[in-house]
């Protein structure tokens, strides 16, 4: 039976910090990792926060993720740079890469870092938020191992290749699109499979080839928009690999585990493109118009990132909801 309780945010951060320190991390790296994992759970994405944390620690302890390795530049090409992640912690590599893209954007208006040979970055939206907090539009994506079939196919050949687009707002409630190329992310499917809660719309095909909302019955994940998501997943994979000089999904999947993925980080410095007040007003006007439309019965019209921001505020006030089995696992580490 699924047991859900609430934990104070700072208590969660402290436990993550304790385990990371015991594992061998130190200084700012420990703070960054603990904060990102805690923030992910705070904002309603435990599949890439608390629930993923014990697995990350195991990956570090086994050497699958190199604790000491960090991303570093290998080629400077003006507003774009190529970096190698050396299979270090994906969160630290991702933060460094988007941070550098922001620095390049300050100089060139647009900055790009193409990162190869890195590991799982957890919640993709964290890097979009980093850019938006700096007043930049942030766009980033990663490839993955094979997780879904192409449209019209039966065998897994494509990654779910999450894509992020973040647009800054002065109040910090940024527009944040964070989406996998499958209808639901693997982490979300895992949660629904454990709880038995059906998806609101079909998330994949069952053993008989029928679309289903039962996560536990899904054997082939459904690409978003069917052929559109299939095509977008392929293009994101190829662009990330070609820009970074890294591996494609096909090459990643020939290994025993998902490692050495390719990623792209883009930042656009809006302060070089117009007056801040005018830009903010344009965004707000669009969001106000969006929300003013009539909603379906029992539904609410929201913009990307609005719900996660609300969950984050509620978690800071009332505590972060956790599945107790995962929390106990962290306490035992």
Summarize this, please?
The protein is α+β, with helices and mostly antiparallel strands.
Low-pLDDT sequence parts: none
Give me the oligomer status.
single chain
Please state the second-level CATH architecture: 2-Layer Sandwich
Integer-rounded radius of gyration: 20 Å
Topology-level CATH name? Ribosomal Protein S8, Chain: A, domain 1
* Head-to-tail CA distance between termini: 23 Å
Task: Give the helix/strand class.
Answer: alpha+beta
Topology order in helix (H) and strand (E) letters: EHHHEEHEHEEEHEEEHHEHHEH
Largest sheet: 7 strands, mixed
Number of domains: 1
In CATH, what is the homologous superfamily? Malate/L-lactate/L-sulpholactate dehydrogenase, NADPH binding domain
Strand order of the largest sheet: 2-3-4-11-5-6-7
Number of strands: 12
What is the averaged pLDDT score?
95
SSE order and pairing:
Blueprint: E1 4-7, H1 9-23, H2 27-42, H3 53-62, E2 72-77, E3 80-84, H4 90-108, E4 110-118, H5 125-133, E5 136-142, E6 163-167, E7 175-179, H6 186-195, E8 204-205, E9 211-212, E10 220-221, H7 227-244, H8 249-252, E11 261-269, H9 276-291, H10 306-318, E12 320-323, H11 324-332
Parallel strand pairs: 3-4
Antiparallel strand pairs: 1-12, 2-3, 4-11, 5-6, 5-11, 6-7, 8-9, 8-10
What does this structure look like?
Helix 1 packs antiparallel against helix 2. It is globular and about 55 Å long. The mean pLDDT is 95. The relative contact order is 0.17. It contains eleven helices and twelve strands. The strands form three sheets. It has a seven-stranded mixed sheet with strand order 2-3-4-11-5-6-7, with helices on both faces. A three-stranded antiparallel sheet has the order 9-8-10, with no helix packed on it. Strand 8 (204-205) and strand 9 form a beta hairpin. The chain has 333 residues and is α+β, with helices and mostly antiparallel strands. 42% of the residues lie in helices and 18% in strands. The chain has a single domain (4-182, 223-276, 321-332), classed as Malate/L-lactate/L-sulpholactate dehydrogenase, NADPH binding domain (Ribosomal Protein S8, Chain: A, domain 1), CATH 3.30.1370.60. It has helices spanning 9-23, 27-42, 53-62, 90-108, 125-133, 186-195, 227-244, 249-252, 276-291, 306-318, 324-332; strands at 4-7, 72-77, 80-84, 110-118, 136-142, 163-167, 175-179, 204-205, 211-212, 220-221, 261-269, 320-323.
């Amino acid at each position: 039976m699924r047991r859900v309780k609430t934990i104070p945010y700072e208590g969660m951060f402290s436990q993550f910090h304790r385990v990371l320190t015991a594992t061998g991390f130190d200084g700012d790296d420990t703070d960054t990792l603990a904060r990102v994992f805690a923030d992910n759970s705070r904002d309603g994405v435990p599949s890439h926060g608390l629930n993923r944390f014990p697995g990350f620690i195991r990956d570090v302890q086994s050497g699958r993720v190199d604790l000491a390795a960090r991303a570093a530049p290998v080629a400077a090409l003006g507003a774009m740079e190529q970096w190698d992640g050396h299979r270090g912690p994906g969160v630290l590599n991702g933060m460094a890469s988007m941070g550098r893209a922001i620095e390049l954007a300050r100089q060139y208006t647009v900055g790009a870092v193409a990162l190869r040979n890195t590991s799982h970055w957890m919640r993709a939206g964290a890097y979009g938020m980093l850019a938006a907090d700096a007043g930049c539009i942030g766009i980033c994506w990663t490839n993955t191992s094979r997780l879904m079939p192409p449209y019209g196919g039966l065998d897994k050949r494509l990654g779910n290749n999450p894509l992020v687009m973040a647009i800054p707002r002065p109040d910090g409630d940024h527009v944040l699109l964070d989406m996998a190329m499958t209808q639901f992310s693997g982490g979300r499917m895992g949660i629904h499979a454990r709880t038995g809660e059906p998806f609101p719309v079909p998330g994949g095909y069952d053993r008989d080839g029928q679309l289903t909302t039962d996560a536990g019955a899904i054997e082939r994940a459904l690409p978003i928009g069917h052929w559109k998501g299939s095509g977008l997943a392929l293009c994101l994979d190829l662009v990330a690999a070609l820009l970074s000089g890294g591996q494609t999904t096909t090459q990643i999947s020939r290994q025993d585990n998902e490692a050495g993925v390719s990623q792209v980080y883009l930042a656009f410095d809006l302060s070089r493109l117009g007056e801040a007040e005018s830009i903010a007003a344009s965004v707000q006007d669009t969001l106000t118009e969006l929300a003013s439309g009539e909603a379906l019965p029992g539904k609410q019209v929201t913009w990307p990132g609005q719900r996660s921001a609300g969950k984050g505020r509620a978690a800071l006030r009332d505590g972060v909801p956790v599945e107790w089995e995962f929390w106990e696992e962290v306490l035992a580490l």
